[in-house]
UniProtKB/TrEMBL annotation, chain B:
Domain Calcineurin-like phosphoesterase: 1-199
GO molecular function terms noted in the UniProt entry: exonuclease activity
Keywords for the protein's UniProt record, in alphabetical order: Exonuclease, Hydrolase, Nuclease
Name listed for the protein in its UniProt record: DNA repair exonuclease
InterPro entries for the chain: Calcineurin-like_PHP, DNA_Repair-Maintenance_Comp, Metallo-depent_PP-like, Mre11_N
Lineage summary: Archaea, Thermoproteota
Pfam families named among the record's database cross-references: Metallophos
Amino acid sequence: MTIVGSIVEGNSKYLIMRERKGADLELGELVVIDDEKRKYICMVYNIEYGVLLEQGRLYTSAGTIIEKTNPKLEFPNDDLRIFRKIYLKPLIEIHNGKYRSPISIPKLFSNVRRVEKEDLSFIKEPDTKVFLGKIRSGGRILDFDYYMNGEEMISHHTIIAAQTGRGKSNLVKVMLWEIMNHGKFGILLLDIHNEYFGIGNNKGLKDHPNADRYLLYYSKTPPPGHKKLKVSLTTIDPEDLFGIIELTEAQREAISVYRRQYKEEWIKELMCKDLSNIAQSTLRSLRRKIGNLFRIRISDSGEPYCEDEIFNFEKIGEKTIFDIANALENGKIVIIDGSSIPDETGLVIMSAIMREVFRRYENYKDQGILKDKLQIGVVLEEAPRILGELYDKNIFGRIAREGRKFKIGLIAVTQMASVIPDEILANIGTKIIMGNEMKKERLKLIENSPQDLSDYDYIIAGLEKGESIVSSIFTKFPVPIYTPLFDDIAKSEKEKSEIVVF
Amino acid sequence: MKFAHMADIHLGATSDPKLKELEMNTFRKAFEICIEEDVDFILISGDLFHVNIPDLSIVKEVVKIMKKVIENKRKIYVVYGSHDYSPNAVSIIDILEEAGIIVRIGRGKIEKGLFRPEVIVDERSNAIITGISARKLSLEREVFKILDREYLSSFKGYKIFMFHTAIDELKRKGEYYEGISSTDLPSGFDYYAGGHIHRRIEYGRIFYPGPLFTGWGVDLENTAKEKEEVFI
């Protein structure tokens, strides 16, 4: 084990080491301080020059070199008066085989070395594991797979925050791939770019050996063997629209009136039948909004019909919401291809599904059988408004606030964490923070993280694609990870199903 | 070309003597209409009988009715339904086929990992008929996954695909059987002759005639409301 430095200064919040020449530590690297009784794992968060000379001599010496008046450096390479000061943030203290947040500091002049795989053996593999990537020490990737307990991670919600192009979707795909190994969670995902399933020759979740058992794909144009997305408008409830599209109080009231009067036919009747107690201006505006949402047109005979293939006023797809809720309960990953529908329309479908799931899980809780049910999660991708200004009106906000009690969790994937209210962010137990150049976004996440990330601002700004910091109420320290490319993980061949032909 | 399509006949489903009589009379009447309409052939998309080995008196009556069609040089094409099918015993469907009363659709073989159903050309109309038989608990869904679609697309002409499986998007509240997606059906057919859903449905080119008389208790109420349970 090569010693990279020695502790010379510090307190319980930070330590400073003198770096050994040539060690070349980087920001974000993990190092280990081996004390007599304790071991400390620290992270490099700042690097400075250490010079025990007058500043004037340094400037003079630099001038002689660049002006070529005396190209010979005044100071030899092994001059002990010139070195690098490395600032370390103590992350973990291991004492008698137990690990915890540091409550002590190492002795002065304790040796410091780079972290090795063995130093992390205190991190155990959970039962219902979700693979997030390999632990990273700065830019060095350790051969140590990092898993979180999926039950905890999903039930207490997770946010994956990054600027575009930093690997958010790749991370979600990697997580879902692992979940499909055990089928212990039901996950609903609206795939707005249709990139998770793996259309055509693209690698995707369809290539998982358990795809037949654990994956359901709904699309307007699915390949053979997958589900055609059909939703009967009779299965859409007013609640599914609230908090997804903007509605005035009068419009909400009008919707409620139609719902009360016409039950499951409320959308159809609202589109074509006037009610005397509802103002024409309210109805006109409402019809335009709902009409656009479901692409409803009125025929020459005055009958409403859906131009889009997905929705209809008949009973086609009357069980789609129910079937998807069933699939989630049975530990399947359900992908809804949202690439060919407006975002809001996809969110209304998601909302209807999660309403049904919530209803069932509330019943299970009342019956005392919730503990026997699988954890369910919903991936909300690039939907900042839904968890932002509208969060108090929709099912997703409700899941963020109360879902934990009902084994329903959110996985929010966003570039815009700053628009999510603190109340929601505070309820999110795990933050996976990827690279972000926008200070506002970084600060929002740092302020709302379970661990103290006040020294991480610069590190987060410099995270490369695939690199992230996992800060969670279930981890003792912010874990730096690198998530491999999904395509590399998905190399294994799909197992052939055993088929009996007759 | 004119043909009749029925499904979910469930002969032998009733035990009350009066209902049994009505059940057989309905079946007889349907076949009489087919003869009157001079159809080129008849499709039965599964569940002709309620069990795979029914009461022989019912079979005798069925043979008598069907023979009139056969003598008229018309064919009756049948796929197994979930009730007709037996995983470990001979079904009455096999016996009727052996006797030349019906033509069973749904046989096939595996080639290069794909299922190629036998394709039959109706001599009278030149209609191309193929399909997939049902199994218990809708296990035939696995076969749809390995269907040789390219092979089926190579046939040209008026094409009919027979099956006895529910389509998921057509299921109603309270219907709990496992189904397939409409996209599981091979493309390019002119008529998809379905069975298993006990309702009359026209969904694009997919047709379910519903039960002729009754298979489940609720069918009797529906039969009383809806008159036509055969597509011609």
